[in-house]
């Protein structure tokens, strides 16, 4: 049986269940339908053998990842708008720059996923504000050595996600 | 072929050194030398460099502070959402800390964890369960092939069990307090070591109290709370306070005595905090943020006839408003 056939069968048997599962998480039928669709699209793109012994657990795993991506985007947008609201009007960037930045932030947020908060903060202070390691150490109240280790750890973490997923 | 982890780390090291001391020609030359030593070095360098470029927020005009705020705030809320809605708590949020994949640093699985007064911390355990430590708490782990044991030495912890109730190898998940051994199955529960007893509150799933004395085994279901001491385990009414809200950095009260509320807030502060007897029986309901307890105290006069008096920063007393 080709992998497309098995995806098709999964779709027939579990699509409405997955839709309901997603609706419970997202509280929104339109988003749920989109993500259910995306889940099966993901499956079609996979080259390895599908794990069909526990189809629902398998679908849930993929759908979960998509839900988190969806929420990440939402939360980024919300937090971005809040941050913009605090800027003086003259400093608010153009719509185009805003889109660009949001996209970049989303890429970065994905790469930073799973980092410890201190590691993350140290890295972001270097990356966003261009602070030196010494300034970061002072601001966070930790040693210079810790800052160096955190920033290097964060980069390595991103490297692995980017090049050796 | 992918560069080895060692070479990647070296490349990162060089890149950071050059970034920190960019102007030094000597350092530049040393870095060039390292890069040209092998193809592997150069490939790792190129990748780290382009990764750095891809993540370069300073290239977008006016991005700096806004980007930092956006990333930090959205991350906190994302984890709160995940914890609450999606994974039934398998992913944590403690407003102070977020630990996950790099738990691999803890090896072997025997570690000590402690928090200072006012600090909270989340630790992802090797089985995927989540351990939250509240203010002024110490615990250690003993995970081996037979059991997954968390010893609570003092303070308060919340345990959110991973999806497999017995773990991949069928090992029980245990919390040892001074008074009893608790066994968690699914769900989430809070264990608080009080002066003369242990308080167990289950918010999801169920917990078994294994009591050393004649009381033996006692089951605690979701929504129930028990006090355990040397004599045995006694069910108690739930407090007028959400038992696990601290893990989200909050105190959530429903008609709570002000005196009890102040005792609770005092756990998160250094120094002396109290209230006079004539207001201790006032009641309050609400959601209070723990991150700044001074601010929290200053909110009280808005809803209650009280006055916050500071003798020093660390000596605070609530009194009836004149």
TrEMBL record, chain A:
Keyword Transcription regulation assigned: yes
GO molecular function: DNA binding; sigma factor activity
RNA polymerase sigma-70 region domain: residues covered: 10-74
UniProt KW keywords: Sigma factor, Transcription, Transcription regulation
Any one GO BP annotation for this protein: DNA-templated transcription initiation
UniProt keyword annotation of Cell membrane present: no
Domain RNA polymerase sigma factor 70 region 4 type: 106-158
Top-level taxon: Bacteria
Family the UniProt entry places it in: Belongs to the sigma-70 factor family. ECF subfamily.
Protein name as it appears in the record: RNA polymerase sigma-70 factor (ECF subfamily)
């Amino acid at each position: 049986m080709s992998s497309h056939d098995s995806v098709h069968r999964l779709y027939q048997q579990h699509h409405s269940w997955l839709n309901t599962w997603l609706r419970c998480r997202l509280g929104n039928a339109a988003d749920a339908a989109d993500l259910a669709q995306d889940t099966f699209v993901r499956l079609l793109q996979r080259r390895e053998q599908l794990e069909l012994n526990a189809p629902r657990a398998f679908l849930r795993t993929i759908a979960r990842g998509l839900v988190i991506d969806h929420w990440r985007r939402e939360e980024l947008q919300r937090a971005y708008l809040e941050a913009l609201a605090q800027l003086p009007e003259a400093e608010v960037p153009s719509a185009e720059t805003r889109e660009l930045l949001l996209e970049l932030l989303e890429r970065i947020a994905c790469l930073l996923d799973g980092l410890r908060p201190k590691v993350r903060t140290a890295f972001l202070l270097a990356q966003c504000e261009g602070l030196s390691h010494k300034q970061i150490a002072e601001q966070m109240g930790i040693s210079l050595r810790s800052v160096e280790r955190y920033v290097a750890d964060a980069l390595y973490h991103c490297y692995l996600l980017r090049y050796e997923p | 072929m992918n560069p080895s982890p060692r070479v990647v780390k070296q490349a990162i090291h060089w890149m950071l050194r050059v970034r920190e001391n960019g102007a030094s020609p000597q350092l530049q030359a040393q870095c060039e030398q390292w890069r040209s030593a092998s193809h592997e070095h150069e490939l790792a360098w190129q990748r780290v460099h382009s990764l750095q470029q891809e993540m370069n927020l300073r290239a977008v005009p006016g991005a700096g502070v806004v980007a930092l705020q956006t990333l930090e705030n959205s991350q906190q809320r994302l984890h709160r959402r995940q914890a609450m809605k999606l994974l039934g708590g398998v992913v944590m949020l403690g407003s102070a800390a977020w630990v996950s994949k790099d738990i691999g640093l803890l090896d072997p699985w025997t570690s000590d964890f402690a928090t200072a007064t006012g600090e909270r911390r989340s630790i992802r355990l090797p089985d995927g369960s989540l351990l939250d430590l509240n203010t002024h708490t110490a615990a250690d782990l003993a995970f081996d092939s037979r059991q997954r044991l968390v010893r609570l030495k003092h303070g308060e912890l919340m345990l959110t069990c991973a999806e497999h109730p017995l773990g991949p190898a069928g090992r029980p998940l245990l919390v040892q307090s001074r008074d009893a051994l608790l066994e968690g199955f699914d769900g989430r529960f809070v264990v608080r070591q009080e002066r003369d007893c242990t308080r167990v509150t289950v918010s999801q799933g169920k917990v078994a109290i294994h009591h050393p004395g004649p009381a033996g085994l006692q089951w605690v279901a979701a929504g129930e709370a028990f006090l355990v001491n040397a004599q045995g385990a006694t069910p108690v009414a739930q407090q007028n306070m959400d038992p696990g809200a601290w893990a989200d950095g909050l105190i959530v009260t429903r008609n709570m005595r002000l005196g009890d509320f102040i005792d609770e807030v005092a756990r998160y502060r250094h120094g002396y905090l109290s209230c006079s007897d004539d207001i201790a029986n006032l009641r309050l309901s609400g959601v209070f943020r723990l991150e700044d307890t001074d601010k929290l105290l200053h909110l009280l006069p808005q809803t209650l006839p009280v006055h916050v008096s500071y003798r020093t920063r660390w000596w605070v007393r609530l009194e009836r408003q004149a």
